[in-house]
Amino acid sequence: MITYMDIFNREKNVEDLEVYTGVGDVNEQLARYGVKFGIYKNNEFKEQLFPFDMIPRVIDGEEFRYLEKGLKQRVKALNLFIDDIYGEKHIIKDKVIPEEFIYAGSGYLSQCEGIKPPKGVYSHISGIDLVQSKDGIWYVLEDNLRIPSGASYPMIARGISRRSAPNLFAGKHIEDNRNYAQLLRKTMDHVNIGGHTVILSPGRYNAAYFEHSYLAEKTGAHLVTGKELIVENDKLYFIDYSGRKERVGAVYRRISDEYLDPMNFNKESVIGIPHIFDIYRKGNVALINAPGNGVADDKGIYYFVPKMIKYYLGEEAVLNNAPTFLPYYEKDMKYVMDNFDDLVIKDVAEAGGYGVVFGNKLSSEEKVRFKEMLKNEPRRFIAQNVIDFIDIDIMDNGKLLPRKADLRAFVLMAEEPMVWKSGLTRFSRNPDSFIVNSSQGGGFKDTWVLSQ
Amino acid sequence: MGIISIENTDKLFWLGRYTERVYSTIKIFENRFDSIIDMDEYEYSEFCKRQDIPNIYSSREDFSQKYCFSLDDENSIFSNLMRAYDNAIVLREEIGSDTLSYIQLAVYAMKKATISKAPLIGLQKVTDNIAAFWGLADDAIDESQIRNIIKVGKIVERIDLYARMKEEPEKLRREAKRLLNRIDKSGMRYNHKMLAHVNYLVQLDELPYGSLIESIENLVGDE
Fold this sequence. Notes:
By secondary structure, chain A is α+β, with helices and mostly antiparallel strands. Chain A is about 30% helix and about 25% strand. Chain A is globular, with a radius of gyration of 22 Å. Chain B has helices at about 5-35, 45-50, 60-70, 75-90, 90-95, 95-115, 120-140, 145-165, 170-180, 190-205, 210-215.
């Protein structure tokens, strides 16, 4: 396992790290470019800077090739799974996955039954969350196939870091991650059925608005809100300032399924586009990612991913799942009850680090209540062994401090899956916490993938 | 030419107006406040009257603090800067991250000035960043239509402000001429009769400032 210390020492520049973290104020530069995320506190929208720590996560070439192989395999299988679920449902008929795990999950959308998206791609952009245990083994913690965010942060941070300390990047054979926009453009163009490509944002009060606008700028796609798009004669149009209608062929939508189309989903949605789902069904526009993907990134379905890899691809999974138990199965329920203190329990309906309970952190009374809830709603939870994943140092006021860090890898699907040679490394700012989500105060690091 | 929505056309126009408003009101404020220091304590009421803003201030100090820095005062320079920011932040794709960053820097400079022991001198950095924003907008934005919409916003705001402050007719004539040269290049919808009327008004010997303000405010939009 390689770390940043190897990189900095290898060049015999022992002061490298001090110089690197001391030069330029990269966070000041990130603030200048508005690298923020929004959060709602007490119903009030607030923009916060996303704290960046300059010490990178480093992954060597060989290790990354292993991850790349596993990530491609996983995303291919997940795409086949979604296609199957909204199509023939072989995996259910063959009893590989119990049907209640499909239909009882909030991610399954009956409206998507029978729909084939352009070029058969469902998960155009997949964000796969991984952690590396202290013995060097990588585990997948979560698949994000709906609207995974975060690629823009290391992308912009890399450019600024390189400007701050150009000499320190020289000769280190670090893959350039600023090509994410090209990969994304290729992904969007691959499924565009003819016309403009737009990035549909709920607007500036969305948590990830910086990312929406930055990716629009870097890909050359048009950033739009629902008000600027209209469905007419079974086609999607952008209305320009003069009232002229321009055909739209692909929509990278950064709004959730629920709010996408008030005629087909949540009727209260004011940010969606009426009838966009109807024309998507007819193949008249590409939606990136496809609606209904939630059926495959449900925390309950996660348990079955290695099985679906075997089922669809006839291969053993390259990447490990974290050891997971489904209280739905009697045997697993017993294990969870007997080993409650050693497990982390996750509510399958929650995201962003919410709904996560560490068994050993609960009081006796809370444990009793929680176990009762587990028995009553076994489908609602999964339990996992707590993986003691690695710490990566952060520089805090001149001191090196170890902090838990995960990795969100991005896989983009055009003709073939492409793994972005970087990723968003998120770290916990709290020394005792395993929760790295930005919404819970976490920061981010760049991820350096070495070409050698 | 890229595609621009009506909504973003509007935002570009107002980005031009609000950046101009912030820049010019800082200059006007600094100029007038310098005189107020040596004059009657309540002389600022005349400034409020000309700007057509309510005089909610209790003293000269209260006026300089709130009018410049209070976000609770909707007519303050800071409030207008935040309106510029609100328009700019959704225009990253049109104007580019580098250009946008100067609006962000102007906001940081204003926040810093607000808590500074010498707040008024801190306004210099706000105007510096706005000037840099305009310079980069002119240099780095490829799309001429986008540049022209921002410029039309600036000129309209300038005419409005000059009329409110009863500036020399010659200054207004110069801006009206610039508007005439620019507005068709912006592709914006505007009231042609109103533009002709603005040009008529600025040529009069006795400049009717009130009518001019009304006409310029009704210039942009459908006829």
